Amino acid sequence: MSILGQAPSAMNITLNGNKTDFDNISTISELLENLDLAVDSVVVELNTKIIQPDSYGATQLGEGDGVEIIRFVGGG
């Protein structure tokens, strides 16, 4: 948790199996925005639990969390 008025420090999460540091990320929505991924094209799993898209903005990420992002790809 950051102190009021100070920018949050880097957070380490495991993203699709890779330990990764992110700055200024606190929610799933912010993570997706940082990765340039559209909410309607992914499924997000946080610590083995699938998160509903309407909860992305309210779902907080924490140090050491495990996040899996699965993207939908069309084609034939």
Q: Would you write up a description of this structure?
A:
By secondary structure, this protein is mainly beta. The chain has one domain (11-71): Ubiquitin-like (UB roll) (Roll). The protein is 9% helix and 32% strand. It has one helix at 28-34; strands spanning 11-15, 18-22, 42-46, 49-51, 66-71. A five-stranded mixed beta sheet has the order 2-1-5-3-4, with no helix packed on it. A hairpin with a 2-residue loop joins strand 1 and strand 2. The longest helix has 7 residues, at 28-34. The radius of gyration is 13 Å and the shape is globular.
How do you describe this structure in short?
With 76 residues, the protein is mainly beta. It has one domain: Ubiquitin-like (UB roll) (Roll), CATH 3.10.20.
